[in-house]
Amino acid sequence: MAAAMAHAVLHKLLPYGGEEAASPRGAFVLLAVSLMLLLIRRFSTTSKKDYDEKDDERLLSRLPSPPNKLPVLGHMHLMGPLPHVSLAALAAKNGPDLMLLRLGSVPTVVASSPRAAEAILRTHDHVFASRPRSMVADIILYGASDSCYAPYGAHFRKVRKLVTLHLLSSKKVQSYRHDREEEVAMVMEKLDGAAAACAVVDMSEVLQSFTNDLICRAVSGKFFRDEGRNKMFRELIDANAALLGGFNLEDYFPKLARLKPVRKIICAKVIGINRRWDQLLNKLIADHVTRLQLLQASGTDDAEQEEDSGFIDVLLSLQEEYGLTTDHIKAIVISMFEAGTETSYLVLEVAMAELMRNPRVMAKLQDEVRRSVPKGRHMVTEDDLTNMRYLKAVIKETLRLHPPGPLFIPHLSLHDCEVIDGYTIPSGTRVIVNAWAIGRLEDLWENPDEFLPERFLDASHVGLKGNDFCYFPFGSGRRMCPGIHAAAATLGIMLANLVYRFDWELPTGMNKEDVDMTEVFGLTVHLKEKLFLVPKLV
Ligand code: HEM
Question: Is the predicted pLDDT of residue 7 greater than 90, yes or no?
Answer without folding.
Answer: no
